[in-house]
Amino acid sequence: TLVGAAEPVPVRYTVPVPSAQVKSAVLLAGLNAPGKTVVIEAEATRDHTERMLAGFGAEITVEEADEGRVITLTGQPELKPQHIDVPRDPSSAAFPVCAALIVPGSDVLVPGIGLNPTRAGLFTTLREMGANLTYENERSEGGEPVADLRAKFSPNLKGIEVPPERAASMIDEYPVLSVVAACATGETVMRGVKELRVKESDRIEAMASGLRANGVEVEDGPDWWIVKGLGHGNIPGGATCQSHLDHRIAMSFLILGMVAQQPVQVDDGGPIATSFPIFEPLMASLGAQVERLPA
Q1: Which fold does the domain 90-285 belong to in CATH?
Q2: Closest Cα partner for 224 from 194, 184, 201, 187?
Q3: Which residue numbers are catalytic?
Q4: By C-alpha distance, which of 15, 18, 45, 42 is closest to 117?
Q5: CA 94 to chain centre
Q6: pLDDT at residue 25, rounded to an integer
């Protein structure tokens, strides 16, 4: 049982691990406390909450200091109602975008995707790998940068080293990035990603095991992994991959199956409904062959 404070007080809080959720919880609690609530991030995380609070009229500042990113919120503000257009989720957009880049003949437009710099690291990385990925109709909605993403088949993707400082802006997209990396030539190196070990599953282990089972060489350590790409059309496939009850693992291996020489199975697709309940019909409408096998 959690009992709220009758007279809340502001705090100065350093987030122990990068977590936009923890940061947001402290800031929202600070709305009801007099004085200034301060949250310090050693590593910047997505800033949707800060943008939203500013849009509603809260007094909130963000500064870069030696200790990290310092967010200061003045409590008990006079908030004003706003009309909010919520941009579409870049983490969900990642799957049709990545599929389009690696499936021959693809040309897919994904409209209205949020391109907040704290969330769009995957798209920057894909373009650095040589992806034919363009931003159309760039605009601002609800204080957030938004664009329509056009992804076209990109047969000449190259492996790169993803800057570790970019990890927070794409932490949920590393599983599907590893599938794209398997289709590239050369090594894709991903470091500074220890958070992947403690997501809904150990996502490094889950993806590394499944990729190896499908003929892709992977090296991994406590906070890094390297995918050794085979180039377009060279992934053997044919394995059944464990989803570990993790929606992003299940979807990533289904994307892998679209380009592998042999079909790829996932032991349990049920978790996909956690974040993307229309994943299967959407991908089928784009031409993917996704079948549910009898138990």
Answers
A1: UDP-n-acetylglucosamine1-carboxyvinyl-transferase; Chain (3.65.10)
A2: 194
A3: 172
A4: 45
A5: 7
A6: 96
